[in-house]
Amino acid sequence: MWTVTLDKHGADRLFSFFSQCNERTRLIATRNLPCAEWPDIFAGDGRLAGALIDRTTHRVHVIEIRGEGYWLHVSLGARKAGGFLNTPNM
After folding, report:
1. Per-domain residue ranges for the chain?
2. Strand partners for 85
3. DSSP 3-65
4. What is the pTM of this model?
5. Other C-beta atoms within 10 Å of 67: how many?
6. Left if phi > 0, otherwise alpha if psi is -120 to 50, otherwise beta: which for 87?
7. From the centroid of its chain, how far is CA 87?
8. Average pLDDT for 16-34
9. What is the pLDDT of residues 47-85, one digit of tens each?
10. Cβ pair 65, 38 in contact under 8 A
11. Predicted local confidence at residue 86, as pLDDT
C-alpha cells in the first residue's frame, strides 16, 4: 500500500484548517491509517501529527470499519468478470 505524505507546508495548512473548524462546525473525516502511522504522513513531524489527532478526536464519534474497501471490491469484481470499470471520461 502506498501513502501520500505532506510536506511541512501542507501539514501545517491541514492542521490550520482543522484548528479553524474546531468548535465551529461539524466535519466528517475518513482515513485508512491508524493514528500511530500519522507522523509518517505529516512530514515525519510527530508533534504536529499528535496535535492534529488531538483536534480531530476531541468530542467525536469514531466509527471503525474493518474489511475490504468498496473500490477494491469493485475493481476485483471487474477483473474477475474480464471487464473494465465503467467510469465516465473526465
Report:
1. 8-80
2. none
3. ---B-HHHHHHHHHHHHHHTTTS------SS-GGGHHHHBTT-HHHHHHHHHHHTTT------
4. 0.57
5. 7
6. beta
7. 23
8. 81
9. 888 888 887 777 778 787 777 777 777 777 766 666 555
10. no
11. 52
